[in-house]
Amino acid sequence: MTHTPRLPEGYEISTDPRGIDAERVHRWLSTDAYWALGRPREKQDRAIENSLNFGVYDALSGEQVAYARVITDLATFAWLCDVYVDPAVRAKGLGSALVAAVREHLRAYGLRRILLATHDAHGVYEKLGFTALERPGEWMALTFGP
Questions:
Q1: Strand order in the sheet with 64-72
Q2: Distance CA 35, CA 60 (A)
Q3: How many helices (H) does the chain have, and how many strands (E)?
Q4: Could you give the C-alpha distances from 79 to 31, 59, 71, 92, in angstroms and in order?
Q5: pLDDT tens-digit series, residues 88-139
Q6: How far apart are CA 67 and CA 14, in angstroms?
Q7: What pTM was estimated for this model as a whole?
Q8: Which of 73, 78, 85, 121 is nearest to 103 (CA)?
């Protein structure tokens, strides 16, 4: 059974790109996320512009407290990436609720799969229905640089 955590009271999720605090997201990712350390602001802005973005916001202040980005064709495939929760609000279930909201948003499109990569959060994602690749030997990657 797939776990569907609820967003804690006092927070809201939006896919409205106008709500994304691009400066904050860039600071979070480029300074504190192992997968994006040093990512230039212009590259992050282009990634936001060309993706489906999810923000979690404090309902009272409107301050963005978490972020997730999805690269998708909205028909067959999605890549979930850049999932980040501000350290000041971690351990409240915001990250799990955010990923569950992404999963449910994408479910409506009838995608065949949603992929992600994680170095250290397998347990979190497994609770939400993600599993290791069944046949990882079939997957390949083309890498242009570090």
A1: 11-14, 52-58, 64-72, 77-85, 113-115
A2: 31
A3: 4, 5
A4: 22, 28, 5, 25
A5: 999 999 999 999 999 999 999 999 999 999 999 998 899 999 999 999 899 8
A6: 10
A7: 0.92
A8: 78
**Residue 137 burial (10 A CB sphere; 0-12, 13-18, 19+):** exposed
Token pair of 34 as six digits: 């192992």
Q: Do 55 and 19 form a contact (C-beta atoms < 8 A)?
A: yes
Tokens 């489906």 map to which residue? 52
* CA separation for the pair 110, 113 (Å, rounded): 9
Closest CA to 81 of 122, 111, 51, 110: 51
Burial per residue of 50-84, b for 16 or more beta-carbon CB atoms within 10 angstroms, e otherwise = ebbbbbbbeeeeeebbbbbbbebeeeeebebbbbb
Closest by Cα among 46, 66, 44 to 55: 66
Residue 98 near residue 13, CB atoms below 8 Å: yes
